[in-house]
Design goal:
Blueprint lengths: L3 H16 L7 H4 L29 E3 L2 E6 L4 E3 L13 E5 L6 E5 L3 E3 L4 E3 L2 E2 L12 E3 L10 E4 L4 H13 L8 E8 L8 E8 L11 E10 L2 E11 L9 E8 L8 E8 L2 E9 L6 E10 L1
Antiparallel strand pairs: 1-2, 1-9, 2-3, 4-5, 4-9, 5-8, 6-7, 10-11, 11-12, 12-13, 13-14, 15-16, 16-17, 17-18
This protein binds calcium ion (2 copies).
Length: about 300
């Protein structure tokens, strides 16, 4: 049982450290508009949203803890290693897959016991029940979901073989895999949709049986061909009950570059966590940006 805690900690640590290497060429331009308020009045009429007050540091929080934020240059982990700029009473936007974006008010920082990770309570609470997709809350004035999100009930034909090939490379024999989710969205708004596919074989109680697995794949058209990136994969190991159930919870632009990050929740039998991936470019692919979690 004890080994499970480090598993989540590793998950979250990798999340924070992995994000520091991910910067985008567009990020530098996003921090400068605050100094442009003295510009000619001709520019103000077209940007009513820019005129709203800066709500502050764009902290992102999931049901399972503070994830972190973009500081204008890089991702900052929300694990408390850097002081989290929340005092309570902040207004957050709430994003959950294709649901309408709502707002909520955050509490002062609280602590997930016993592992001590920072969490925030919300009024109204963030939607999402256990093992199901749930919302991400972000302090931001920009459009957090600049591109559409569509949920499908089945894997489109052109992706079925790729799923089977992936499972085969992992030694998994599952001719008709259970499809957890299919999410179609245009991450960077280039007019070509990407497809996120969740497949799994999982017990309801999340105590792993032999051959259980969970995977999240990203299918992206690159130079005319569909390519597969493995965002998450968990499989049963001999003698261990540990396995993760993954759900895609949100597509949300956490750093105001009009490219949406991919937010995935992962559940194990006594805890849960959230990871946001930034799709950096076609060479680097998706990189872990920020994340948080709460468990025993
Ligand atoms: Ca695209
Ligand atoms: Ca983004």
């Amino acid at each position: 049982m004890k080994r499970l805690v480090p598993s989540l900690v590793v998950l979250l640590t990798a999340c924070g450290s992995g994000g520091e290497s991910t910067t985008t060429e567009t990020s530098a331009t996003e921090t400068t508009p605050t100094t442009s308020t003295t510009a000619a009045t001709s520019t103000t009429a077209t940007t009513t949203t820019v005129a709203s007050p800066d709500p502050g540091v764009p902290v992102a929080v999931s049901r399972f803890g503070v994830m972190g934020w973009w500081d204008g240059d890089s991702w900052v982990p929300g694990d408390g290693s850097v002081a989290i700029p929340l005092v309570g009473g902040e207004q957050f936007q709430v994003v959950l897959l294709d649901e309408p974006i709502t707002t909520t008010t955050g509490s002062a920082l609280a602590v997930c016991e016993p592992i001590g990770t920072p969490i925030v309570d919300f009024e109204p609470p963030l939607p999402g029940s256990s093992q199901e997709p749930g919302a991400v809350a972000v302090i931001a004035a920009w459009d957090l979901r600049p591109h559409g999100v569509t949920l499908l009930a089945a894997v489109p034909d052109e992706h079925i073989d790729a799923v089977a090939q992936f499972l085969a490379t992992r030694g998994i024999d599952d001719a008709d895999p259970n499809v957890g989710q299919v999410v179609v969205t245009d991450i960077e708004g280039d007019g070509v949709a990407e497809v996120l596919i969740v497949v799994n074989r999982l017990p309801d109680d999340l105590f792993a049986r032999p051959d259980d697995y969970s995977a999240v794949l990203l299918r992206k058209m690159i130079e005319g061909d569909w390519q597969t990136a493995v965002l998450e994969f968990s499989e049963a190991e001999d003698g261990s009950p540990y396995i993760l159930r993954h759900v895609v919870s949100a597509m949300v632009d956490l750093n105001n570059d009009a490219r949406m990050e991919i937010v995935i929740d992962a559940f194990y039998y006594e805890g849960a966590g959230t990871i946001a991936y930034e799709y950096v470019n076609d060479d680097l692919g998706p990189q872990q940006a920020i994340g948080g979690g709460c468990g025993a």
